[in-house]
Amino acid sequence: MAYNAIVTRITNVDSHPNADRLKVSLISGYNVIVGLDTKVGDKVVLFPPDGQLSEEYAEKNNLVGYVDEKGEKKGGFFEKSRRVKVAKLRGIRSEAYVALLDSFSYTGFDFNSVECGYEFTELNGFKICDKYYTPATQKAMRNNANKPKQRKENVYFRKHIDTSQYRTSKFGIKPGALVIISEKLHGTSARGGKVLDTVYSPLNIFQRTYNFVFGKFFGYIKQKEHQEFKNLLGTRNVILNPENSKKGFYAQAGESETFREKAFNSFKDLLHSGEIIYSELVGYVSENTSIMPSVPTSKANDKELVKMYGKEMKYAYCCVPGQSEQYVYRITQTSDDGTAFELPYFQMTRRLKELGLKTPPLMTDPFIFDGDFEKLDKMVEGFVEGPDVLDKSHIREGVVIRAENPDGTTVFLKSKSFTFLLLEGIVKNDENYVDTEEVS
Fold first, then answer.
1. Closest CA to 258 of 243, 273, 245
2. Vertex 17 angle, CA 12 and 21, to 5°
3. Element housing 321 (H / E)
């Protein structure tokens, strides 16, 4: 998933209630702790959470903390990983990092040439930031890249779309749009469809004999190929088929991937030609392994959090070990030329009833957007935090905002809870943690 820094502007600055040398600002929807030199009207650069500053940028601005030979703390407040993550500073939420423009002066980039909303990872060839991956995730991604492709891409079987951040992309929602706000579930992505796929006709015994005897001299007879509709199952990035269905991330870790097949088998024979179901699988891979790792809430230094969810929180979604559940949030219909058409929400829910499938819980009834973003912001903010709607034993990840605009376009935006991001940051402190969504 893409990560970018964003050019924006300071619109308000308030005093920090517990620190004289800090201020608080709401910037592009993020609550950010800023320095005393930050002024209303300043053009700045915002780094959302889950990113990593480049080594060069951090070094140029002395942002990484260290202890000198005298034992004194020097440098900035960033750890060696240079991660941008949420935190509480003196009791106040800090949800992003904001940098003044002079910190980029070494790049020679002219910020007057771009408007607010400009996104980047590089400036004039200088790397500034990227998405953060743990060392174990990076290793797993490299291993996947170096392996022979498990399955050739299929233009009729599109991957999951990347969901943009609500706070920075909300203006893609137009007045008059039908808005659906549902819970964001913390699981693994799945897709299954009945789509056109290339099928190769096997060579007969005479053709195989010819290839064996004469092929290298006169050329080999090739298998004939044609297109036909087939049931395909996939993760976010990989198409699984009988030859590689046991090569997914969980299988490589010594677990069974049959939970995906079980979910797909429940509806695959009912699919229309060209129909693709996009969903989230939650719960457990097996008796021993959950789809998403548990979280040590005790490390969050929040007694109330531990009181509500225990010292170790599992994203179970009311599943028992060995059980998983599937929740569908999107259906497309792909034409013979590879064009994918989004099924409108109410058509999707009607189709899911026919298939016996569920959607993620709604946070409120669908409604028509009147263009008031301030009201929509408050509504979204009111839904992101709290216990999971399905299972009160753990927190919710956040919400997904689906907007079907009057012009026929559909946008999917996400807003994650501060508590989820805080706990996710704790999980990613473990260098051996692997982000399954990136490698599966």
1. 245
2. 80
3. none
Distance from C-alpha of 52 to C-alpha of 3, rounded to nearest angstrom: 9
Encode 264-297: b = buried (16+ Cβ within 10 Å), e = exposed.
Answer: beebbeebeebbbbbbbbbbbbbeebbbbeebbb
- Residues 338, 356: Cα–Cα separation, whole Å: 27
User: Quick check: helix, strand or coil at residue 124?
Assistant: coil
Q: What is the pLDDT along the chain (440 residues), one digit of tens a residue?
A: 679 999 999 999 998 888 888 899 999 889 999 888 888 999 999 999 999 999 999 999 999 998 888 888 888 889 999 999 999 888 889 999 999 999 999 999 999 999 999 999 999 999 999 999 998 888 877 776 666 555 557 889 999 988 999 999 999 999 999 999 999 999 999 999 999 988 887 888 888 888 888 888 888 888 888 889 999 999 888 888 654 445 556 655 566 678 999 999 999 999 999 999 999 999 999 888 899 999 999 999 899 999 999 999 999 999 999 999 999 999 999 998 889 999 999 999 999 999 999 999 999 999 999 999 999 999 999 999 999 999 999 999 999 999 999 999 999 999 999 999 999 999 988 888 888 777 76
Bridge partners of 189, per DSSP, are 280
Distances (CA, A) of 192 to 146, 151, 262, 301, 307: 26, 15, 12, 41, 40
**Domains of the chain and CATH, by start:** 5-132 (2.40.50), 151-193+232-439 (3.30.470.30)
